Amino acid sequence: MSAAVPKGTTPYYYVPGPSRHPLMASIGLFFVILGAGQWVNGVSWGPFAVALGLVWWLVVLKQWFGEAIHESESGLYSDRIDVSFRWSMAWFIFSEVMFFASFFGALFWARIYSVPALGDMEHALLWPDFKAIWPSSSPGATASPAGTVEPFQIMGPWPIPTINTLLLLTSGVTLTIAHHALRENQRSKCITFMWATVVLGAIFLCVQGYEYYHAYVDLNLKLTSGIYGSTFFMLTGFHGMHVFVGMLMLLFITLRLQKGHFTPERHFGLEGAAWYWHFVDVVWLGLYVVVYWM
């Protein structure tokens, strides 16, 4: 990834040369999808193909991001590149907003329209024992009055989800402090609070892991627990995945800070990760109210 630019000169708009990385990353993802498809169908080599694809993909990403970091630290990125990065991150977060909006929409439709519709007079002839209530936590109160959905308990807001809410809100505060510290050229303070944010994100994931264990073992709440179970794990699970991705972003930004990267004037890597993390915080607040309280 290179351009014909004199050494030490910032180009008007840096355009990298042809790169092998998109093709190599696609090969890794191909093995991930192929292996996953075979794995769910019981083929013995499926898990190994998934592992191979993930390792391949991660190695390619390390090389790809390493080159991008080298370009940035070499002074090849002008203010115009910075504007492009900001627009790209903004559109990416917008796509994530739409991603979660579809899941919130599925929960809304199931709860407000689908379940009540199944309990009307027309459907009563087909399912006379059906009770159109939410959450559908027991046989006779689900879309399977015959009892094909096992009885389960719902996940309330206390204590685990509330603890996770406090963890995420605190992490948003520590990240904001870190950002302002870098803008004031207080690098040590910035690094300290960035590590605090990463640790809080990791604790959130551990607590959510315990929440899922509690749901499966103590509440018998599973992905197969009717529409409630599927929407619960769909929303909280994808959010947990986004927390994991955001935590990795913050981790690598922190490691770069320790190497002396970023300045008070130029640090969009940190800003972009902060935008993403605050987006994750906002989504969780929506989940906390809609999934756990309502």
Task: Describe, in plain words, how this protein is organized in 3D.
With 294 residues, the chain is mainly alpha-helical. It is built from eight helices and no strands. It folds into two domains: 77 residues, Helix Hairpins (Orthogonal Bundle); 210 residues, Cytochrome c oxidase, subunit III, four-helix bundle (Four Helix Bundle (Hemerythrin (Met), subunit A), Up-down Bundle). It is globular and about 75 Å long.
Report the CATH architecture of the largest domain: Up-down Bundle
Q: What is the total tally of β strands?
A: 0
* CA distance, first residue to last residue: 51 Å
Tally of contiguous helical segments: 8
Q: How large, in whole angstroms, is the Cα Rg? A: 24 Å
Q: Give me the CATH fold name of the largest domain.
A: Four Helix Bundle (Hemerythrin (Met), subunit A)
* Count of discrete structural domains: 2
Overall spatial form: globular
Level of helix content? over 70%
Mean pLDDT: 89
What is the assigned CATH homologous superfamily of the largest domain?
Cytochrome c oxidase, subunit III, four-helix bundle
CATH hierarchy, class of the largest domain: Mainly Alpha
